[in-house]
Write a structure and sequence with these properties.
This protein is an alpha+beta fold and 411 residues long. The protein has 17 helices and ten strands. The longest helix is centred in the first third of the chain and has 42 residues. The radius of gyration is 32 Å and the shape is elongated.
């Protein structure tokens, strides 16, 4: 016998076919429950990672990865500052931007919106989000509207819309100006806060409308990797340490609430689905308790041959771990396979069962996105292994407490 005694006997018990039917049935239920729980966790986390990736791409498309602002923006020479920022490692370009709060008028509707300057870099990002029209350049008479704003105003690409722009006169008195624009394109980011509030015009148009005085101005910075934007922002702060009054922020700070909500949802979903693994672990407990009851005579014989209580406990821990770990391995394999092919699988299910999970008329996403992260798989597998290992403790202690004399008295 080359194996340690607990390992040898535990594996023999796990592979024996002499168990009663009900014990075997509970064993398979426990193994299947662990596998289903682990697979569901991996699939759900991968799908939520996919949605987070889609959200991140759309947020970055509509806002600069890094942005420079100043309380007294009109007193900062942004054009002179752009070359200095462009020289920072990780920066691929920098261009001035401006925002202006205006009122869109299309009788009988009036909608407030944020008019934002769109330079060449922003226009390139917007190309993938256009649902109507198309443009690579904005002149001083055209703009790009969000889809929800366009629907509320009842306009489409090629129509005109009037903007009411609040300005300040030379004597510091408020004044409203009306200006008509042609809608060259309509974009859809799938985010209500953007589709229902944003419009884009050329930087020259924003300056002509008085953004320097009544709006907000700054510098829009493009980076080589949006995920490294916080690091690039720190470098820019160091490079501009002598530039008083200029603040640097990145897109993760501006949209922190979105990703905080996703993290909370992922955490709660993981905890809820981990309960499925916990239920399967209870089945492991029940199965091992029945095996301990069934093997009382065997335990007594082992004890009379000199086996210590710890040795007996490790026998049943080995059996429980084998069942639990087989379930975890099967769940990881199933979860990875489904997570990598969730799009085709959902497409097949929609064709076969006539389902339509994401209606293109209602949802921006028409397919289920998925992004498998190795760290998620490792955390899920590790958590499931710990849960199944804990489930073996009580039955093992119960087996170790069996008295040989009591067990053999009526045999």
């Amino acid at each position: 016998m080359f194996q340690p005694l607990p390992l040898y006997v535990g594996l023999r018990y796990a592979g024996a076919r002499a168990h009663r039917f009900f014990v075997s049935f509970i064993t398979w239920v426990a193994l299947g429950g662990v596998a289903v729980g682990v697979a569901a966790l991996i699939i759900i986390l991968s799908v939520m990672n996919g949605f987070e990736r889609e959200l991140r791409e759309r947020l970055v498309a509509l806002s600069a990865p890094v942005r420079l602002t100043a309380p007294e923006a009109r007193h900062v020479d942004w054009n002179a500052l752009a070359p200095k920022v462009s020289a920072v490692a990780g920066v691929t370009g920098a261009e001035p931007y401006a925002d202006l709060q205006v009122l869109a008028v299309r009788q009988p509707e009036m909608q407030p919106l944020q008019l934002r300057a769109a330079g060449p870099a922003t226009l390139r990002e917007l190309q993938g989000l256009l649902v109507e029209g198309g443009t690579t350049h904005l002149d001083d008479q055209s703009l790009i509207l969000g889809r929800l704003i366009a629907e509320q105003l009842g306009v489409a690409a090629g129509d005109t819309v009037t903007l009411l722009i609040p300005t300040v006169t030379g004597t510091e008195l408020p004044e409203a100006r009306l200006r008509e624009f042609l809608i060259s394109a309509v974009f859809e980011a799938g985010i209500q806060d953007h589709d229902g509030t944003l419009a884009f015009a050329s930087p020259e148009t924003l300056l002509a409308l008085g953004a320097a005085r009544s709006g907000s101005m700054g510098l829009s910075v493009q980076v080589d990797d949006a995920m490294r934007a916080p690091e690039v922002a720190r470098r820019i702060r160091d490079a501009l340490a002598a530039q008083a009054g200029v603040s640097v922020s990145d897109w993760t700070q501006e949209h922190a609430s979105y990703f905080r909500a996703i993290r909370i949802e992922k955490t709660m979903m993981a905890l809820i689905l981990l309960l499925v693994v916990a239920v399967a672990a209870f089945n492991i407990v029940a199965m091992l308790v029945m095996v301990v009851t069934d093997k009382r005579t065997d335990i007594a014989i082992l004890r009379t041959l000199g086996a210590l209580p710890g040795t007996v406990a490790r026998v049943f821990i080995t059996q429980g771990l084998l069942i639990g770990w087989l379930g975890v391995a099967a769940g990881v394999a199933l979860g990875i396979a489904v997570a990598r092919n969730v799009g085709p699988i959902m497409g097949w299910a929609e064709r076969v069962f006539g389902l339509r999970l994401f209606d293109a008329d209602v949802y921006y996403f028409t397919q289920v996105p998925s992004e498998l992260h190795r760290i998620d798989v490792l955390l899920v597998a590790g958590s499931a292994l710990v849960v199944t290992a804990v489930a073996t403790i009580y039955p093992a202690l119960r087996a170790a407490a069996v008295s040989p004399a009591e067990a053999l008295r009526y045999e």
